[in-house]
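Bumping my old thread because nobody answered last time. Still need a sequence for this structure:
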């Protein structure tokens, strides 16, 4: 009689997704990503849409006393906006369902301050519905931004507001299909309208929001969604709003509060967020957020200050190429469309991305455990871009690497680097013509688990 081997039994017990990973004899090292984090790593680039009454008042932070009557986009077209994002290569879109001014872009039951009180579509409109539907139609994932700070709510600062915030989250997480990311901003408390009080309200951001219980609600309603904040629990802020991670960027992180002590959203020593913590106890990869314009919201005067496709490609290399994600904000204008300049830039960026990774000169095979690999093109070719990835299921292992090209009759160093993680992109200042490129892992506490080494023209 044939008994299953121990290995067969082990494999049978594995979830289906784990079987998709290449077989390995290597033991995992350090903190490991969850399945939801792994799915998120696969996205790499996605967009923000910052849209609220600010779009109509020309502000970045609304005070909370804006009249909902001013929210009246004249040619709102969710399909057109999502299509433009898709042309830019975006895999998802996160909508500011409520920004600090408290105006809700969906017909919430929690407050009167919403689209229901606006003339747009006779008070029957629902921006969250239209954007989430359009995203799914175009194959993009949908995420929600729900500002913890609410300058409109009379109850802000009291326990009743936490109930209200959770009720809003519950509406967003139950009525709009699968959510890939929930975005909790760190800007918390200050002056505002607060139901007419017009005063300053300070909250203690280490205790007021009781985050663990809010996050538990997200886990319950949308178990696959990653939760973003300054400190995770799934995705961390990179520590700047310029769209780049540090040259060395670990997926592991040990967040500390601004003045030491425990960290919380709005209270993190952000100087460490760009690099993370080598050997940190949590898998907490970085997300690099930035706007395509100087501001997060649309302003007429910034129509001429849209980042170019080349600027965006540079940021892509400095975010995705350093193991983080790239979250690019493109704000709708007063028509409820993306401005022509932004649309053109997105399209140009999408094309540049395709061009950059169009011609594969070669990839290395049988990577498990080895410290040295060669990609042989079989003929001389001009190469400029190299992509490396680690098998994240085995943790972040590599600490330093070097790349050499065969030039004349010897290996010559062309680049070196540190962290790899989900993705490390190396772009040489100028193309090098060679027929083979070598990767050497020069520092790793355990056998490396490189899952990709590809050279592009
Ligand atoms: C910040 C907010 O204050 C900005 O308005 C914007 O939403 C940005 C993404 O996060 O903290």
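Sorry it took so long. Here it is:
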């Amino acid at each position: 009689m044939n008994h299953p081997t121990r290995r067969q039994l082990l494999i049978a017990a594995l979830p289906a997704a784990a079987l998709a990973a290449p077989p390995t004899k290597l033991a995992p090292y350090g903190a490991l990503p969850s399945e939801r984090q792994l799915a998120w790593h696969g996205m790499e680039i996605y967009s923000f849409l910052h849209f609220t009454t600010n779009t109509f008042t020309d502000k970045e932070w609304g005070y909370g006393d804006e009249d909902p009557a001013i929210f009246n986009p004249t040619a709102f077209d969710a399909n057109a906006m999502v299509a433009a994002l898709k042309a830019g290569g975006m895999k998802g879109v996160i909508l500011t369902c409520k920004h600090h001014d408290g105006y809700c872009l969906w017909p919430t039951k929690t407050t009167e301050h919403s689209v229901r009180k606006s003339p747009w579509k006779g008070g029957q409109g629902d921006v969250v519905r239209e954007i989430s539907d359009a995203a799914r139609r175009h194959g993009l994932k949908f995420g929600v931004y729900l500002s913890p700070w609410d300058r409109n709510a009379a109850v802000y600062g009291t326990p009743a507001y936490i109930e209200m915030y959770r009720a809003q989250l519950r509406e967003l997480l139950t009525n709009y299909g699968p959510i890939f990311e929930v975005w909790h901003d760190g800007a918390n408390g200050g002056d505002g309208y607060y139901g007419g009080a017009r005063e300053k309200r300070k909250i203690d951001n280490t205790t007021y929001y009781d985050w663990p219980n809010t996050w538990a609600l997200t886990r319950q309603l949308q178990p696959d969604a990653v939760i973003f904040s300054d400190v995770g629990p799934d995705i961390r802020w990179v520590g700047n709003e310029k769209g780049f991670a540090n040259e060395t960027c670990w997926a592991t992180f040990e967040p500390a509060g601004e003045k030491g002590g425990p960290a919380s959203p709005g209270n993190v020593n952000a100087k460490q967020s760009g690099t993370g913590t080598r050997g940190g106890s949590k898998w907490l990869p970085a997300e690099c957020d930035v706007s395509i314009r100087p501001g997060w919201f649309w302003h007429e005067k910034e129509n001429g200050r849209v980042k170019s496709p080349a600027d965006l490609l540079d940021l892509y290399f400095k975010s995705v190429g350093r193991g983080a994600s790239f979250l690019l904000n493109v704000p709708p204008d007063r028509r409820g469309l993306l401005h022509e300049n932004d649309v053109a830039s997105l399209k140009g960026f999408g094309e540049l991305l395709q061009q950059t990774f169009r011609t594969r000169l070669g990839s290395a095979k049988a990577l498990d455990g080895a410290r040295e690999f060669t990609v042989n093109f079989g003929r001389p070719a001009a190469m400029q871009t190299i992509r490396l990835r680690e098998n994240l299921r085995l943790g972040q292992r590599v600490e330093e690497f070097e790349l050499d090209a065969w030039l004349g009759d010897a290996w010559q160093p062309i680049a070196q680097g540190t962290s790899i993680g989900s993705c490390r992109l190396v772009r040489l200042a100028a193309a090098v013509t060679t027929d083979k490129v070598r990767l050497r892992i020069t520092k790793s506490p355990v056998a490396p688990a490189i899952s990709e080494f590809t050279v592009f023209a």
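The first strand starts at residue 45 and ends at 49. Let me know if any region looks off to you.
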